[in-house]
Amino acid sequence: MACPTDHSSPRRFARSPAMLALAAALPLWSMPVLAQATPPTAEPVIPDPEFDAAIPPLGPDDDPELGAPLESVEAFERRVAAPPPDQPEAAAAIPPGQDAELAAPLPPLDQASEQSLMLAQEAAADPVPGEPGDVTVAYQVQLDGLEIADRETDADLLASFNALSALRKGKGRAGNLAMIRARLAEDSQLLQTILTAQGWYAPNIRSRLVLAAEATGAAPIATLSVEPGRRFAFSDIVITAGPTDPPGLIRDNLGLRTGDPILAEQVLAAEAQVAVALPENGYPFAQVGERDIVLDREAGTGSYTLPVTTGPRGRFADFATTGRQAFGAEHIRVLSRFRQGELYDSRKVDDLRKALVATGLFSAVAVEPQRGGAPAGDGTEPVTLLVQQEAGPPRTIAGTVGYAAGQGLTAKASWTHRNLFPPEGAVIAQAALGTQEQSLGATFRRANAGQRDRTIEFAAEAFRSDYEAYSAYTGRLAARISRDSTPLWQKRLTYSLGVEVLATGETDYDAATRTRPRQTYYVAAGSAQLGFDTTDSLLNPTAGYRLTTLIQPEATLNQGFNSYARARIEASAYQQVGKALVLAGRVRIGTIQGAELADIAPSRRLYAGGGGSVRGFAFQSLGEQAPDGRPVGGRSLAEGSLEARYRVGDYGLVAFIDAGQAWRETTPQFNDLRYGVGIGGRFYTNFGPVRLDVATPLARRPGEALINVYVSIGQAF
To answer: Which range is the signal sequence, renumbered to this chain (predicted)?
Structure first.
């Protein structure tokens, strides 16, 4: 804020190191500035020797006292203490003070202790009840006049004062009167700041501490009286800038109007909007200068001037990159959503910066515009984007542990090199070791493969599964192209297309022999998935909905050749109720069309039950049971869930009810639905919530566990 100019009233404000001068709105009254200069050297009127010669000499003949001997100190003190001869003797002498503390000898310096000095009037204050020996002054606070300004503004001035007031924070207690006076002075300045921020630049604020002897009550009263005065308004809005395209670009985005109150927050927001709008409309090098506001106290107005340097209008040209690079300019071009020759737009530059961060390959990355050459025929200049890279560590080791009824305990670990084959060619090695599942696999994934957000993936894995429904030894090769959401870059529309081939040896119940012989299946499958997501978070949504559809045509070679299609549709919705409660619901329906149940490998059938399905039941335990009591699986399923999620800080509590069933038929029958209810705990982390759910089945049947526990990362849906 520049020093105000004094014109018997005007005050001038400019953006300074405290651009907050207007935001904090601390008034600066005009003062004349005195120039500092070296005073001139003056020659003496009379030289020193001439001056000394002019003084007459003095001796004992001139004043007898000069020749008299000096009296002793004791005689001088007795003479001074003696009353004048003409003063009558007092009727009664005032006895000397008898303060024991004053008469006591001073302690040695090495034994002295610091004691607080308390005025007699402050020491007389009553101690706080329940705190013997601790003297505290109780006080009251009285604020008058602020409501006058409060009626003229949308801001709650009284609430702002109460939230920041030193007197209010003291809760009516202080160590002494000096402390109350200090708080009173601080709150007087606070009122000045609050009123100035809302356009009252010349308020009259009076503060007074009314002591007990002057008031009717026993406690001192800290009084603040406010006379807001006139609310200042803009008299002129002046913008000094060159021409823009479109012509009203700066004024339209500034938004300040003559006659409007001069509000600190609105001025700062208006200037910030100009600073944002210019780069969004082709001016990458625009600069908003220091504002100048001249206040006229007599008129109650302010003249506002804002200088703006627009700089040249630019168009996107090429890329340049420096630093420790994860990839070159060619891949940066793939990540950008603009083409060479387009008008510069800072929003597209911000989008590129986010895409670079989302790769996970940088510890730091910056994108800055650079002037790129001579102007074109339309007056625009080419703008080169300089990408400053600082590649981070490319390797990651991760691990998870989970538990679910029917699946047992499973520990998973992975090693990832995110850029082993640049650009963004990642290799992932993963392994799982569990009580009922073991696996080993490797994946190659190239993100942003030739196109922004497109991922190509190849995977190979081998695993062993030992569940109630079946046991299997499986080898799998898969390829996939997709557009997926990530926690850093959630997308509204996602898709995936994939193919896979499997060779698997699985056990299945044979009704003829009443045994479970192992059979070999060769499966070739394709998949197409489409998702639509409007939620506000990928891992912990609180609003919006999701819709996902999946179609998988498959061919199986076992004792014969069979082809069929698997399809699934799932929808979920989330609604926040109050600050801490979220209601969530999910529905899932699946079907297999084109083959008999016995011709489908057990691992490719549909099952219900478990932590991601119907809680309260073991994994894959619902549906038709074989004579040996184990699940058979089905060709259709239906599931639904309702949850109430309550969160306090990093912890949450969930109550839920799930329902579902699997059927042999190809369409859901919606009979014999099973229900599970339970509660869960959540611990929220920066990578998603850690989930612990405990559920029980309703109408529990023989062989079903009373309690089922599920532990994993992420919400159930």
So the answer is: 1-35
